[in-house]
Amino acid sequence: MSWKDTEAQTQTMVTKTFELAGAFGPVPGIYREPTEASGRLVLLGHGGTANKEAEYIQLMARVLNERGIATVVIDAPGHGERLDSSIAPGPDTFEKMWHGGGGQKAALSDWRMTLDFIEAEYGPRATGWWGLSMGTMIGLPVSATDQRIQVAQLGLMGTWGPNGESLRELAPEMTCPIRFLVQWDDEIVPRDACLELFGLIGSRRKTLHANPGLHSQVPLFEMRESAAYLDKQLG
Amino acid sequence: MSWKDTEAQTQTMVTKTFELAGAFGPVPGIYREPTEASGRLVLLGHGGTANKEAEYIQLMARVLNERGIATVVIDAPGHGERLDSSIAPGPDTFEKMWHGGGGQKAALSDWRMTLDFIEAEYGPRATGWWGLSMGTMIGLPVSATDQRIQVAQLGLMGTWGPNGESLRELAPEMTCPIRFLVQWDDEIVPRDACLELFGLIGSRRKTLHANPGLHSQVPLFEMRESAAYLDKQLG
Q1: ipTM > 0.95?
Q2: What is the pTM of this model?
């Protein structure tokens, strides 16, 4: 339960990898912080069948870092280094990966442990969540149940999928400010299910942004604006 | 068909009133420009039963002015100085006001004339539209049919109301970038009708922003961001 050897430093960012002994098996992760001390942290949740090193996760880590915000990402249950080697990751095997890894229960346990670990190392900081698609399947329950999360960028998810019923139940519990992305032509998560989930979120301050395009075609400007949003909300 | 006497100047803004001889009667308007020369113009469409001097129109004129953008607003058909004195303006009389003033046909004629007039005075400039509710009932047809409009901030309207069918027909004709506001708890224009209208808009670049609240409870940050959006799009 500690940092791994690998550490990298650029002019503006320090990257450290770690592995924690989770209740559902080892949880490998990457922590990045600006070389200048950072008083803010964002938890990054990657999408289904992706992993902690997905390109858009690296992009978000970079743009948040440019705003002086540290980030942490872990492989989700059944994903990345935690993938069951008998499963080929893909849309058809996603539910198998999710359930095989322990699903929402594991994800909640992993993230509580991860945030505990990072806070033990660096102290408590203003903390937000960023995660789309499976990053919302996980991020909504995390944000709804962990009061340390002060703001969440969610989206590309609805009252749908393997934990759709949990999302439906937990959404009204949410109180922190939310921004929620919808892809109008989402071919994976039905638009109406996404709109329904947004509607159910209890937070008084919540804003939905919708753009044309398929599930994975989130415009780059929304990615950048999501960083600006978290930056502003984390104060 | 000319400027009226009234003119006011603050440190940052020149305000001029005018009246044009429209095909559907006199069209009174207000033109405002930054004291520093402005290469950009936004047409402001006010909401139903309001008029060219509504507080939020003045707010938008001011925030656009702060960004170096000139604005022009006119009383809509049957509204403001064009109100039939036998009608008390209100939600119940809105359709009567709209139709009595000549409706969409008059609005299209008015705005073409108004933009012609302003361009004759100041030359052609990068031009956008800002208008919610009736400001979209008018702004969508104007933007869809006048190629001088390069970007439009619309919202609070759907495939609904006295020109709902026209909006449905014209939306696919739109090509300029659009931002579209929805109030999630809109008690006047049904949310589904708003979402349907957004879906029908033909523009490749269109983004919907939705927030909780009633029709008239658009958050102030969205008003400010709508100015930032037009500013960016008008280059």
Answers
A1: no
A2: 0.95
